[in-house]
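Objective 1b: paired records.
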Amino acid sequence: MISKIVNVKELINRIAPLRRSGKQVVFTNGCFDIMHAGHVRYLVAARSEGEILVVGINSDKSVKLIKEKNRPIMPQDQRAEVLAGLWCVDYVVFFDEPDPLRLIQTIKPDTLVKGEDWAEDKIIGADFVKADGGKVVRVAVVPDISTSMIIEKIIKMYS
């Protein structure tokens, strides 16, 4: 079986023929440190926006740049494996930068998806995707579920 976890060059080579056949490429991104129902619902909603869902995942290096100390909890290879195991995810690709702008500019998705907790003018890559003829979709987030909340609950349980 062909791995869903790919580098950028492999990703471009795999999605090019799919695009030529008319398939719409959807991109979203995140850390996905401790997977939960909110992540799954979000990814299913993202996948519904097209035929190919590419998930950009913050590498361990990237997570350390943008999150609090001791993150990520799960190493990048394990986070990627969990994402790749979901039916709705077609490809997983890492990025080392604090944000996915360069990756978005390389992939040129037809649709960029983020949670509705992000204002559209704050979504990294939104201007690029729209200028390239694509669209930006904000999907509902599940209230009261977040990785940070799960971590806080665990800390309270054991302190």
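Objective 1b, second protein:
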Amino acid sequence: MTETKSSRRKFLKSGAVVGAGALALAACGKEEPKKAEKMAAPAVMKKKTEVLKVQAAWGGGIFLEFAQDYVNRVNAMSGGSLKIDLLGVGAVVKTAEMQTAVHKGVLDGAHMVTAYWYSKSPVASLFGTGPCFGWSANELMGWIQYGGGKDLYYELMHDRLKLDLVGYFSGPMPAQPLGWFKERINQSSQMSGLKYRTVGLAADVLQEMGMSVVQLPGGEIQPAMKSGLIDAAEFNNPTSDKDFGMQDVSKHYHLASFHQSQECFEIVYNKTRFDKLAGEHQAILEYAAEAASSDMAWKAMERYSQDLVKLKKDHGVNVYRTPDAVMQDQLKAWDIVVARISGEDPFFKKVIDSQKAWAQRHGAYALNNAPDYRGAYEHYFGSL
């Protein structure tokens, strides 16, 4: 009982002090607001937002939209503590200089494709525009993520090219069309001697087939074909091609090709800058790339198919499937190019061997497991 009374007196005493303080603050609030401000608890300091300047290789269209989709995910996931400022093509440096600019810290990051730094090493093209071993872009990304590709990517960038970069792959692209020609292509001989736009190792392959290749950025393709600088061209997909206005310079569009049958976006950051970020921010940059990758694949299904219909119905474009004979000739040209560069560069051969081993193992499952989707389509909708 004595302890209980003693505890009660202590509680009442402390309560009275708190109550008196509360009353005093209330009184100050009514009569002397300035004094009340002085007595208030200090405001909590807000943590500074980390801002990354990232330049895209895209001036507009759906590719810039894909880049913005990635940025939106990063900004949303961070809750405001990490923010990417996305810059359009040429905002700070030219597209061909983007990787160097990120390496030097002029830019914090870049959204592009590996074919854009192919001039530094032909191996770069193997991470986006390499030979087809019976796999798609999504399967290429499977090799990168789990089949040893990521280690080879960093061996190339860090050990061989000495680049201060960290990178992620995102957005598996459907096989790129053979593209736009002045007439329907029925055989490879029609392509010989034509001035054609493409990038990366695809340039070597089509030169092997007798074409004269010009490597141009996307925005310059349509004007070049309109002026006669080039005779034929490809970029990537029906949506981008329509946005470029390719339907105004050609009415002959060929889908399917092995020149760039698997590609994906590359998102790179300056490694020194990246290493200084908090662990959760590093994770957000990586996992946002994975989330954006899935979203891009689904969005492409919707948009590319819609715009192919528009090209045919609204613009009178003739759409063909590239003949199998032409694509077989492309594979033969790939064999020559791969053998030549492998003989010159042992690391190129190392990457090729890794890809072939993974594609052979995975393909034995995937291709045998896949039902006849075309047959099912034609069962319900008729011949394509």
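Residues 50-172+263-301 form a domain with the D-Maltodextrin-Binding Protein; domain 2 fold (CATH 3.40.190.170). DSSP finds 14 helices and eleven strands in the chain.
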